[in-house]
## 1
Amino acid sequence: MRFRRGDIRATIIDHFYRMKKLSDILEQRVSQAIRKTTGQDFPAIVRAAADPKFGDYQANGIMAAAKALRTNPRKLAEQVVAVLEIEDICQTPEIAGPGFINLRLKDEFLAARLLEINIDKERLGIEKIDTPQTVVVDYSGPNIAKQMHVGHLRSTIIGDCIARLYEFEGHRVIRQNHIGDWGTQFGMLIAYLKKQNPQVLQDPASVRIADLEQFYQDAKRLSDNDETFAATARAEVVKLHNHDQQTIGVWRHIVEESRRHYQPIYEQLSVTLKPEDERGESFYADKLADVVKQLREQGLAVESEGAVCIFPEGFFNKEGQPLPFIIQKSDGAFLYATTDLAALRFRIDQLHADKIIYVTDARQAQHFQMLFAVAKMAGWTQDRVELLHVMFGTMLGEDGKPFKTRTGGTVKLKELLEEAVDRARRVVDEKNPDLPQEQKQQIARAVGIGAVKYADYANNRNSDYVFSFDKMLAMEGNTAPYMQYAYARIKSIERKAAGKDVDIEGELANLAALSFAEPAEKELAKILVTYDQAIQAAAQECRPNYLTAYLYDLSQAFSRFYNACPVLQAQASQRPLRLLLCDLTARTIRHGLKNLLGIDVPEKM
RNA sequence: GCGCCUGUAGCUCAGUAGGAUAGAGCGUCGGUUUCCUAAACCGAAGGUCACAGGUUCGAAUCCUGUCAGGCGUACCA
């Protein structure tokens, strides 16, 4: 964002705080005033006001400071306000209650901020972070040779949002799709494929596995019932581990076939994972022995009941005995704990991660606690690398039990998404029957898929949540369609402008002084300038619901504004501001939904 | 037994280093359309924030204990 000399905006905006978050500026100003008054540092604790009658922001830190200094809080507040330099941003601060400082934004400041955001077409005035880190995000991790089911949804989309958030903040994000592409079940699958389709050996690419689920089940049934076949399967496992060329060829084919099944689902979900982000269990297979060797040499890993174990402090089993983190079974085989250790070491040593985020369900919490403890014991993190388990609850059906089909089977992700699109399509057909077929289908996809994703994001990820098509596809409430609708209404205004002789581009290009006439305008403006805070909070806590809550607030404020303030018919003096508010709202919703949540925003709906 | 997660309006859920009178949506009741998409907007009713103590100017939020549900707890992932 650059200002030309003489530009009115440059005179309005003080370069000192340009681009910084409003909440940070206020925090800094009030903290400075407290320091000036008391000679000591106390946090100002500036927050959005609890009630509109208290203004827009309130500083809560005075009471604590007064307490520490054993002085009267209201008196301290008066002294702080006396030296508080904030007249470029706020009206005269007020002191209220036991010692709150209430701040009310000046119209000129809000207007200047809006203009500033308007100039930045890519990032809406949001700066990249000062100190970028290398952040590894481990998410999705589907099993090869099985269809993706609802159990994979949350990790896949929550992880994707976190990756997008960190990337937008300016960090170097490395996505890692830790696919389950190795293990004993592959012996069975390879043996089965060789048996059913011998031509796979000559030309692996010629064989298609139409239904992965069926393929897996058939192979398993044969393995369970046919001892000869089971022996062949075991032999294939050995061949696989020895990198037998023929067996590896068939294995690779199975992996590629699986990818052809799940990659389209990623695309349908607008999940940013690419094949090159895959680094599955097979990648670490030849590094496992070394992990065990190193941990043994360090004296951390010891044999117990025939298995190689590490006993991190503070973990106990049912008998109250130390709980082992088993890295090699008594039969010599390695486990997922071993693979996770190898992956963790790789991410630190080879990917140079500063932070590693694992997005998996809450049931694995203890596993990751132990994994992180072991990594620390082994000295891998060097008190430098941050390890984070971002956990989430289970998806439940409307009966409150884990989400299953009527017959009790797992719900396939593909079918779930198809149903969401079908349901959305029915609504589009009803509400907007005259649109072309193709556009209706495109809207149905955006609304249906968006609804499923958004419903997941909007929930506090720690809780289990009840999956309901009816709720997520509703136009009322905190749903994707509600926000998409707000966006579509703005786009509709833009389309109608020409017919009413309104030159939007011209009016937006010549914006200068703006003044707020209606409360709804200012309310919307106040929310628009806090988008940066919402993003920061969501990224910092890895909680997409902070972002969805913001987008919902914004959309609600827009709907009120839309209802109260005509745009195209507005007086010439008022129209530029309203056009600007519409444009910024549309761009913010679009950025939040599409760029950060991966949810499409149709122009019409 | 131990550990983790959860417990907020009839239902589904928010509540972002402890802040003023705890918020939405659904459902219920009532209102708004010569006007840019009513898939919308406005209003009303509805709460012992599971319970009991504690910490302090102030607790849904922090601490301790209790109760309830879910999950995990030695060779699955």
## 2
Amino acid sequence: MVTVKPAAVKPTPTSSSVEDYVKVIYAFTEWQDKPITSTQLATRLGVANSSVSEMVRKLKDQGLVDHQPYSAVRLTAEGQSLALSMVRRHRLLETYLVQELGYSWDEVHDEAELLEHAVSDTFIERMDAKLGRPSRDPHGDPIPAADGSVTMPAAHRMSQLDPGHSGRITRISDHDPELLRYLDQQRIGLDAPIRVQGRKPFGGALVVRVGTGPAARDFDLTEEVSEALWVSPEGTHPGCTLTRTTLT
Amino acid sequence: MVTVKPAAVKPTPTSSSVEDYVKVIYAFTEWQDKPITSTQLATRLGVANSSVSEMVRKLKDQGLVDHQPYSAVRLTAEGQSLALSMVRRHRLLETYLVQELGYSWDEVHDEAELLEHAVSDTFIERMDAKLGRPSRDPHGDPIPAADGSVTMPAAHRMSQLDPGHSGRITRISDHDPELLRYLDQQRIGLDAPIRVQGRKPFGGALVVRVGTGPAARDFDLTEEVSEALWVSPEGTHPGCTLTRTTLT
DNA sequence: AGTAGAAGTTAGGCATACCGAAACCATACT
DNA sequence: AGTATGGTTTCGGTATGCCTAACTTCTACT
């Protein structure tokens, strides 16, 4: 009798550059499904266009992306799976730094960016266990499970909300530490109840009320700020609705 | 009035290879003061001799080592300082992994090896604080302070002890995880009281008694094991005597 | 002192990942 | 349809850090 081994889980050693490319491609698609272009990739990675062309060719050779010359870049299932594991690493690390080492949420991004390439799977697993298998990070971003499944909260960019809409802040972009410090100061945090009051004329600030009852406060938010905040309608809360699973 | 700025603390970005070379050079000298040769360096780093020649030239250009062709390699004060900061990182990480993430002492070395190049100074500082500024790691190796000062325990290799000597185990080489698991199994750990009973003839095993009173147990230790264990005479214990400070 | 073999260095190459400049393609506008 | 414009790729080149193979220097033994 012949026993068939499960297809060897090819542990292709991926360089940290490859990991970064794949992660950025994924991140671009996470909240709306448009493939990313070379130039956008180059901008986000801070490299020259030519470097992207070259690297994309390598990624394609490794089966991580689909790409036709002069068109946008898309992750394959394999690429998606690698990306999800990097996102998982990043977000678990951010959560860990905040909860266990007293980092503030504006400090964690860069540190996690470096660590995610260095830690072992064992480290990730121990961290995950110690944190109690959290489902979202300090900025509200969902943490993919070890099997690659993600639960996306049903959220909309605050900047796209019509006056009258209300809900809770479920996600805050972590790309600008400045902004995070500002929000901290104003005590605008994750899960804060929020309601869009109106919009100042001529593309002006978005007026929102944070909190309820007597503790409510009104803010004029610039486009930059309201772009960075995501709101879920009351009730659907901590993260439900869409569950998307990616095969490995 | 002119204010003189302190000489800018040149934050030369050192690559992880440079860090590894410097660390290995330092480690070789830590317990006895002989400079390391190219071939020894190559062996410990797992690279070809030619790679070492090349890299040593670069290290010399950067002022991290002194080196004359065909002779041994020595750290400069600057190199020593970099090495100490890497050793500090490594040992703090090992301690952290054991105490906070439940690693066993045979698992930590490789993980720390990777992390030490990735974590920030901030991370190190937070870890150090959380651990209560420990002075030695899980294997008994002294952890250099942030200012580069190290307190070396007055210890001798067990393999070089004469029968009749007694003391406590203060350091256990962490280079062989196998060996660490063996010692764990035999419940031979850090700070265990120990006494050399004798030596089997013809370069045979070293016979030692671990523990005292009724709990004492005798072991035959091979050269390999007794080489890896360091013993301090009773009394001088956890780490005192030699304090060596290196200027930054 | 002479020389063999070990130890160390130099020379030429490879892989990764980046760059700027030049060539190329696609689209959108007249 | 014809072309300008901008996005994309290709082409040489750079820097690191590693390799093997060939060569040089040192050392220790006869």
